[in-house]
Write a structure and sequence with these properties.
With 555 residues, this protein is mainly alpha-helical. It has helices spanning 13-18, 30-35, 77-87, 152-155, 162-178, 192-197, 203-222, 228-250, 257-274, 280-293, 304-321, 339-352, 365-384, 391-413, 417-421, 423-443, 452-468, 475-482, 488-501, 507-530, 541-547, and strands spanning 133-137, 144-148. A two-stranded antiparallel sheet has the order 1-2. Strand 1 and strand 2 (144-148) form a beta hairpin. Keywords: DNA-binding, Nucleus, Transcription, Transcription regulation.
């Protein structure tokens, strides 16, 4: 009687090919070591094209490839996405999953199980989330609901409905990443704010939590998911709840300013993502007034969260003012000589002096200072009239701005090869050249032909950024360049950016796209009407935005 053999498929590839017993020693087995052969236990992939001959099997398969998954139903795309995510889960992860896998999703039903890689053990930033997922079948077997497991702190809230857990996970993993142009360890929306929101021990924290859920729901609604109306309704309900939680806190002297500002941010960006045009300004004005009122009691540098929150608030103020030159809105109340303007200027300068100001936008402090000075000069011209403006004062400001911009430009000429090709570099250079465009178009009303080289440089760095990154490029420099594009090359580059920027589920991007295309339409119509080149036709995008009843936050 023949001896019974235990057949395994875990030996090295060389022993399988030679059809000999492998002792499976690591890193190399004894048989390969004794013969000086290369020993390998890794995944071996063989690609066979239709018009080529077959390949010689190493003896692992006992059936043909086309028979491997015969009899199994075709997996829905959501399940395939889930299984791909599971490929990179650590094999050493022990303990039960937050959400146990359903019975119908067995290991043998996973066509990607052979591709699992060993965990590198890389650490993540604070607030790390797990990747445990549950696929829950619904009545329609063609669709599934992905049930996402969260961090350990999220597991402490088992009574939360699965939909809240999914939306919170979506916020941390997707929405928070979109808030910065590239991954950064100090991203407050991915680390600080979620951790505080889960505490839910007081009104400002509960407001932050509901605001984040609203933000995530509006994002999913803008992505065009099947339940668009349902997610929009969730976003609206949570938005209302967040306001009701925050209102009593604002009626007394606030305690934790960073948390309150974060709550207002969540409401403001819920408006931005939902596509609401102008309500974000009311939230920003409320937060700015709060900081101005209690500026002597704010712990400016005591916590990282406080510093980053105030920086973001000031950045939004600077970028938001670029669209207020022709608006009489909540942020442009009062004249340039109003004493409150001096208070705002000193407060803005105080925040700008904090370390790493501008990193959340992808622009450096000198560039944001230049944009702020251009804003103030434009507001002064609009309030007093160009004939009454002190030309010497204006010249001093212009000289200061151009000196700063030229200094930043010289520094880019001496950057290293690695810095030149980095996504951070492309982001900052786009801001640099777009600020030139903003200066000449806003202060001098120069036609597009006079700023064409800066427009082309800006759009070049936008393309270069996307060639190296999947990040969410800051919209301000690209928008400032796109509205002044008129040559076929620049128009094509601007169209590429518009297509990319509207794929992130942010409602304000659709409005900005409409503004850009309307500027192009008006410029082309006026040029054809008078028979001149489009490059000599200046169209003020702020006037177009006002005519379209838009007031969009350009971040």
């Amino acid at each position: 009687m023949a001896r019974k053999r235990d057949r395994t498929f875990t030996g090295c590839w060389k022993c399988r090919s030679r059809k000999v017993k492998c002792d499976e020693a690591k890193p190399e087995c004894s048989a390969c070591r004794n013969r000086g052969l290369a020993c390998n236990y890794g995944v071996k992939l063989v690609w066979v094209e239709d018009n080529k001959l077959g390949y010689k099997s190493d003896g692992r398969r006992v059936r043909r490839c086309d028979l491997t998954w015969r009899g199994y139903s075709t997996l829905p795309s959501d399940v395939v996405d889930y299984l791909i995510v599971r490929c990179d889960e650590s094999e050493s992860q022990d303990g039960p999953s937050t959400f146990p896998s359903p019975e119908w999703l067995t290991t043998s039903h996973n066509p990607f199980s052979a591709f699992r890689v060993q965990s590198t053990g890389s650490s993540h930033i604070s607030g790390e989330t797990s990747t445990t997922v549950e696929i829950v079948p619904v009545d329609d077997s063609r669709h599934v609901i992905i049930h996402l497991g969260l961090s350990q702190s999220m597991m402490e809230h088992p009574d939360l409905p699965w939909q809240e857990k999914m939306l919170f996970h979506h916020y941390v993993q997707q929405v928070a990443s979109n808030m910065l142009p590239f991954e950064h360890s100090r991203n407050p929306w991915k680390s600080y704010y979620p951790a505080i929101a889960l505490s839910s021990s007081c009104g400002d924290q509960r407001s932050l939590y509901h605001g984040m859920i609203s933000h995530a729901a509006f994002h999913l609604a803008q992505l065009g998911v099947n339940q668009h109306e349902a997610y929009s309704a969730i976003g609206s309900r949570r938005y209302t709840t967040a306001i009701s939680e925050l209102r009593p806190i604002l009626e007394i002297e606030p305690g934790e300013f960073a948390t309150i500002i974060g709550s207002i941010f969540s409401l403001m960006f819920a408006e931005v993502y939902s596509g609401q045009s102008s309500k974000w300004r009311y939230h920003h004005k409320g937060a700015w007034t709060l900081v101005r009122q209690y500026r002597d009691k704010i712990p400016w540098n005591t916590t990282e969260l406080a510093t980053v929150s105030l920086q973001c608030l000031n950045i939004i103020k600077i970028i938001g003012e670029t669209a207020t030159g022709i608006f009489n809105d909540v942020d442009s109340e009062g004249s340039a000589d109003d004493p409150s303007q001096d208070s705002d200027t000193s407060l803005s300068s105080l925040i700008s002096a904090t370390p790493a100001f501008g990193f959340t936008l992808g622009a450096g402090k000198p560039i944001l200072d230049c944009i702020s000075k251009i804003n103030k000069l434009q507001q002064r011209n609009a309030s007093r009239g160009s004939n009454e403006t002190s030309f010497s004062q204006r010249d001093d400001v212009l000289e200061d701005v151009l000196t700063q911009l030229n200094s930043c430009r010289r520094k880019t000429l001496h950057s290293s090869q690695a810095e030149e090709s980095s996504e951070v570099s492309h982001q900052s250079k786009a801001f640099l050249f777009a600020t030139y465009v903003y200066l000449y178009r806003t202060i001098f009303d120069s036609p597009p032909a006079n700023v064409r080289r800066y427009v082309s440089e800006t759009l070049h760095h936008v393309d270069a950024f996307y060639s190296k990154s999947n990040g969410n490029f800051s919209i301000w420099p690209a928008f400032i360049a796109a509205v002044e594009a008129y040559t076929p090359e620049d128009l094509e580059a601007a169209q590429r950016w518009l297509h990319r920027s509207t794929c992130y589920g942010m409602g304000n991007r659709q409005a900005l796209r409409a503004v850009v295309e309307e500027v192009w339409r008006r410029r082309a119509g006026m040029a054809d009407l008078v028979g001149v080149e489009r490059g000599v036709i200046a169209v003020d995008w702020r006037k177009v935005m006002k005519d379209m009843n838009y007031d969009v936050l350009i971040v």
